[in-house]
Amino acid sequence: MEPRGGSLTAASRLDATFAALADPTRRAILARLASGDASVTELAEPFAISQPAISKHLKVLERAGLISRGRDAQRRPRRLEAAPLAEVTRWLDEYRRFWEGSFQRLDAVLDELKAERKRESTGRKRKKRP
Amino acid sequence: MEPRGGSLTAASRLDATFAALADPTRRAILARLASGDASVTELAEPFAISQPAISKHLKVLERAGLISRGRDAQRRPRRLEAAPLAEVTRWLDEYRRFWEGSFQRLDAVLDELKAERKRESTGRKRKKRP
Asked: ipTM above 0.85?
């Protein structure tokens, strides 16, 4: 793994990572690489787009440090590099309490609704019409 | 919270979220909203950019479902909505094993290097020059 973005600030590294991830083809390439290194030809196969278009996507991923090139000079297999994803995860951790919080609030609301419905249905049973 | 992106696929929701997050001002706005709802004027304050520029960023965040507008018609306070961030976290979870794996490999390499150095230094001590 080559040192990536040595001169970049953490903010501009995140900019590059998020921008690189904002494309379904690039995310699909990462998903493919998650199951093993692959050459450009292998990566282009499942997509209905040209090899130059794939190469362009690979450049974006490479600039963001999300992939690197293997040593095999012929195949130049691409490899997934997870460090930028770990950085994104650390960034997201600051916000984790928000969705965990909202799910807890949602659970509380649902519990309250259930309890209310139960009280209502018990009430109806008691007030059965003659 | 308004239902967001009902007609959008999961992929295009991720596209919108990642694109919205690929900007330091927009991430700073989210960080500000994490400490409480705020009006556009309040959000613009810490930034050396115009209010229209801030409004443009807010639109991007809103389209991605990352913020919503409060009911107060005058202030229209913006609120952080964490659901898209939870979606990003779920997406990232698929890759977690990669950086966890690489850190484990790195630890193993470092342990090996330490052990080697220890063996070398013990060797040198034994072969002291006369």
From this structure: no
pTM for the whole structure? 0.74
User: Which of A34, A91, A102 lies at the smallest CB-CB distance from B95?
Assistant: A34
SS (H, E, C) chain A: CCCCCCCCCHHHHHHHHHHHHCCHHHHHHHHHHHCCCECHHHHHCCCCCCHHHHHHHHHHHHHCCCEEECCCCCCCCEEECCHHHHHHHHHHHCCHHHHHHHHHHHHHHHHHHHHHHHHHHHHHHHCCCC
Strand A67-69 versus strand A78-80 pairing type:
antiparallel
Give yes or no for B46 touching A (CB within 8 A).
no
Contact B54, B41 (CB under 8 A): no
Residue type, B81: E
pLDDT 10s digits, B7-55: 678 889 999 999 999 999 999 999 999 999 999 999 999 888 888 999 9
Residue A71 contacts residue A64 (beta carbons within 8 Å): no
Contact status of B80 with chain A (Cβ, < 8 Å): yes
Cβ-based neighbours of A6, under 8 Å, separated by 6 or more: none
User: What is the distance between the alpha carbons of residues A89 and B89, in angstroms, rounded to a whole number?
Assistant: 7
What tokens does B49 get? Answer: 């950019």
